[in-house]
Amino acid sequence: MASPNNAPSSINSKKVLAVEGKDEKNFFNALLKHMNITGIDIREVGGKTQFPDKLPALVKASGFFLADGSSFVTHLAVIRDKDEGNAFKSIVNIVKKTGLIPPTKHSEFSNGKPKVGIFIMPGEAIDGTALEDLCLKTVENHKAMACVNKYASCILALELVPKNIPKAKVQVFKAQAFLAAQPVIVDSVGLGAQKKYWDFESPALNELKSFLAKLK
Question: From 3.40.91, 1.10.287, 1.10.599, 3.40.50, which CATH number describes the 15-126+205-213 domain?
Fold first, then answer.
C-alpha cells in the first residue's frame, strides 16, 4: 500500500477496499474474483490498530480527489475484524475525521461522495470475532472438520497448553489445522481462499457477499 516515503501509492480505481493485512487482501482478491467483481483497489493498512492513521492517509493519497476537490473514488469500503470493543463505531469515528460521511448501519454504504461502507468481520449473522470464524463456518460440514475438532480438543486438554490459547485464537488454531489437512498445505486463510479451500458458495458468506456486491 505504501510508497518508499511511507505514503500510500496513487489511487487509480474508483472503488477502494481497505482491509487489515496481506492475509485479508489475499482472501478478498479470491472472493471478489469468485463473485466476478473487478476493478477494486484493495489496500492493506497493516493491522486493525493502524486504521486511525492509515485510513486518513489513504483518503489523502494522490488520485483520491480530483483537482477541483470532487472525489475520483466513488466507493470506499472498510473491512476489519470485530475483536474487542465497538469496531463499527471506531471506524465510523475515523471516517468522520477524514471529512467523509460514514454509514449509519453495519454492512451499509453512506450516500456521500464517495459512498463509504463498513463491514465488521465475521458479520452480524456469524458468531465470532474474525475472518477465521467466517472461513471455518463455510466448511463446518467438511469431513476434515471432524478431525480438526478432535485435534483441537486434544491439544487444548494438554497439561502444557501453548501459551494458554485465548478463545479468540482457538479458531485461528482450527483454521490452520484445517488447512494442514488439504492436498497442498498453505499457512494462511488468505492463501487457503486462493486454493479454494473455503466454500465460497456457503450461505455463511451471504451477508459479506451482499456487502461486496454493492461495489459492482
Answer: 3.40.50
Q: Evaluate the omega torsion of the peptide bond into residue 203 and state whether it is cis, within 30 degrees of 0.
A: no
What is the mean pLDDT of the segment spanning 184-192? 97
Could you report the per-residue pLDDT of 116-137, keeping only the tens digit for each?
A: 999 999 999 999 999 999 999 9
Task: Give the span between the Cα atoms of 90 and 80, in whole angstroms.
Answer: 10
Residue 84: pLDDT band (50, 70, 90) is confident
Q: Are 97 and 56 in contact (CB under 8 A)?
A: yes
Q: Over 4-53, what HEC string results? A: CCCCECCCCCCEEEEECCHHHHHHHHHHHHHCCCCCEEEEECCCHHHHHH
Which are the contacts of 10, defined by CB distance < 8 A and separation ≥ 6?
61, 62, 63
Contact 54, 1 (CB under 8 A): yes
pTM over 0.90: yes
List the 115-121 sheet strands across, edge first: 40-44, 15-19, 75-81, 115-121
C-alpha to C-alpha distance for 32 and 11, rounded to whole angstroms: 19
> pLDDT exceeding 70 applies to what percent of the chain?
93
